[in-house]
Specification:
single chain; alpha/beta; 4-stranded parallel beta sheet; 14 strands; G6P_Isomerase
Length: about 525
């Protein structure tokens, strides 16, 4: 018998067990919660018992998670399909040397960080200006990790903004950049173009649009552009001075890149000190991940809960539910982090996976979701594990009563998911409302909650830059651990390539420059209809 099979058998054996039963013996909450730094991670409202946890930890040990993590931190080329190291952690670890192919990469990391800091200060203090004076607005143009990370982080840390306003453009849909630029002053706007190769079609299309917009009022628009790119040749051709080009190595993947130059917009918004706190929080989580025993390791435990629910309980989706409006973009960020990383169908050795890969990740901030999709979570036919997160304290002391209500809702939802409401309880409620007979039974059945729906809760004092950095690093390492256990490469993303290739081929067909021979009948029909509608 393998550990994997033992866990499959265990999941089958506890399938009908109510989670609430686990609280009848001992101090369940304390036994299935862990703390590190500002975080309390409570996974007691899952069907994981001591035996299951022991098996899950043994699974992580069998898959050599610790050795694989150390290989990542020390610069080994664990992204073997692309022949690259995976060193986004080096961007937030400015004190320790890290080597790749025998070369210490940290001097360059530190030098780039120092240049970012100097430029951010110049923008914030008005030493770097636009044609019309001090920069009032920053527009970050990117897509994927070059957009989701900084856009999500800038919103999350809004209470710490004391720099220019920041805006983010990603979609090639012209409506996105049109609506973003509307109302901005080109003479006091800085545009940051985030593309490692400076060839990303969506990003460069939007960059050219922004340049034309700025040229209507600014004599030399390229002087108000900065680039986050490794292509000195292409950024120079665009007209951007090398002093405003910030590069990063190929061992920084897009969805892991906001700790370095891709985070420039965030640094400008909250200042180098706030950004340093953001890095510090992530570095602290890195150290915890490397050193803590698996049974006390937050990223490992979060991953093991996810593996238990997805691979062994066969729950196909996962809802991320931050009770913090400023974390509104976190579920979308985690969609990319998880689904681009672990949405694979073959293992590291190129063989088909014998089990499901990563789950579908989705969510919205509370309490909005309660009035949208929680109905399905509570009473639908599919079980959807939920991951709640909430701060004990908000940033608005004069609105403390509202934050108390927010926290109450968060804790109540996890309680309701676990407890549910029995038919007997629902019947008694409806009897008191005057219902009788068959109608009593009918009305009561509509008000039954199955309960025993699993959830975890991440609790922290307040959403500060350090806490936020820790949260993002926690989830990064969670995805890494899940990928190691599944035996897949979490750091390539070949699945995004085919659609991009076909889109480039279809553009001339839509313009009538190519007949589109070889396209399927559906695609030809859709192209023809688009052309006819355009006249």
């Amino acid at each position: 018998m393998t550990i994997w099979q033992d866990l499959l058998d265990k999941a089958q054996s506890v399938q009908s067990r109510e989670i609430g039963e686990l609280f009848e013996k001992g101090n369940r909450a304390a036994g299935f919660s862990r703390e590190t730094g500002p975080f309390l991670f409570d996974f007691s409202k899952t069907n994981i018992d001591a035996e299951t946890l022991d098996l899950l930890v043994k699974l992580a040990e069998e898959k050599e998670v610790a050795a694989r993590a150390e290989a990542m931190f020390t610069g080994e080329k664990i992204n073997d399909t692309e022949g690259r190291a995976v060193l986004h952690t080096a961007l937030r670890n400015l004190d320790t040397d890290v080597f790749v192919d025998g070369e210490n990469v940290m001097p360059e990391v530190r030098a780039t960080y120092a240049r970012m800091e100097a430029f951010a200060r110049d923008v914030r203090e008005g030493k770097f200006t636009g044609q019309g004076g001090k920069i009032t607005d920053v527009v970050n143009i990117g897509i994927g990790g070059s957009d989701l990370g900084p856009a999500m982080a800038t919103l999350a840390l809004a209470p710490y903004h004391d720099g220019p306003r920041c805006h983010f453009v990603s979609n090639v849909d012209g409506a996105h950049i049109h609506d973003t630029l509307a109302g901005l002053n080109p003479e006091t706007t800085l545009v940051i173009v985030a593309s490692k190769t400076f060839t990303t079609i969506e990003t460069m299309t939007n960059a050219e649009t922004a340049k034309r917009w700025m040229a209507e009022k600014v004599s030399d628009p390229a002087q108000q552009f900065a680039a986050l790119s490794t292509s000195a040749e292409k950024t120079a051709a665009f007209g951007i001075d090398q002093a405003r080009v910030f590069g990063f190595a190929d061992w920084v993947g897009g969805r892991y890149s906001m700790w370095g130059p891709i985070g420039l917009s965030l640094m400008i918004a909250i200042g180098p000190e706030g950004f340093a706190g953001f890095l510090r929080g992530a570095a602290t989580m890195d150290a915890h991940f490397r050193k803590a025993e698996f049974k006390d390791n937050l990223p490992v435990l979060l991953a093991l809960v996810g593996i238990w629910h997805n691979q062994f309980c066969d729950y196909a989706t996962r809802a991320v539910l931050p009770y913090d409006q400023r974390l509104a973009r976190l579920p979308a960020y985690l969609q990319q982090l998880e689904m681009e990383s672990n949405g694979k169908r073959v293992s590291m050795d190129g063989k088909d996976l014998p089990y499901n890969s990563g789950p579908v990740v989705w969510g919205e901030p509370g309490t909005n979701g309660q009035h949208a999709f929680y109905q399905l979570i509570h009473q639908g036919t599919r079980v959807i594990p939920c991951e709640f997160m909430v701060a004990a304290e908000g940033h608005e002391p004069d609105l403390a009563h509202q934050h108390t209500l927010l926290v109450a809702n968060c804790l109540a939802q996890s309680e309701a998911l676990m407890r549910g409401r029995s038919l007997a309880e629902a019947t008694e409620i409806m009897r008191k409302k005057g219902f009788e007979g068959d109608e009593l039974d009918r009305q009561a059945r509509h008000r039954v909650f199955p309960g025993s729906r699993p959830s975890t809760t991440l609790l922290y004092p307040k959403l500060t830059p350090e806490v936020f950095g820790g949260i993002v690093a926690l989830y990064e390492h969670r995805v890494f651990v899940e990928g190691v256990i599944l035996g897949i490469n979490s750091f390539d993303q070949w699945g995004v390539e085919l659609g991009k290739e076909l889109a480039l081929a279809l553009a001339p067909v839509l313009k009538g420059e190519d007949a589109g021979e070889g396209k399927d009948g559906s695609t030809r029909q859709l192209v023809a209809r688009v052309q006819s509608l355009r006249g």
